[in-house]
Design goal:
Blueprint: H1 8-29, H2 40-43, H3 52-62, H4 82-85, H5 89-96
């Protein structure tokens, strides 16, 4: 899969919008007694391997036995690093450095 070029003019506003949406949903769900908050990063580890701890968390939440299959039935087609996935990665690093979104730049 070819690398994607991110639009630097719209990247910060899009990240702010996603952050707002996540915060909104977290506040909305506070009143519910049973909510499972599981991020993609928690569910999948390096090389898109399924995280066994996430599966255990799901089993406990749904009160079922953890008999989930951990082997992937597909082969990931996306690059394994942000640098490989984003063609203008260095420009993105420059844009996000010093912002609250710099935490997403976890690889060089």
């Amino acid at each position: 899969m070819p690398a994607t070029e991110l639009n630097l003019r719209t990247l910060l506003p899009e990240l702010e919008e996603r952050e707002f949406e996540i915060g909104f949903m977290q506040k909305f769900l506070v009143g519910y007694p049973r909510v499972l908050n599981l991020t993609y990063e928690e569910a999948f580890g390096p090389n898109n391997n399924i995280n066994p701890e996430a599966l255990e968390k799901c089993a406990e939440f749904f009160h079922v036995e953890n008999g989930f299959q951990t082997a992937l039935a597909y082969r990931p087609t996306t690059p394994s690093t942000l640098r490989e996935a984003v063609s203008n990665y260095d420009d993105v690093v420059q844009l996000l450095s010093g912002t609250r979104f710099a935490r997403y730049l976890n690889e060089g």
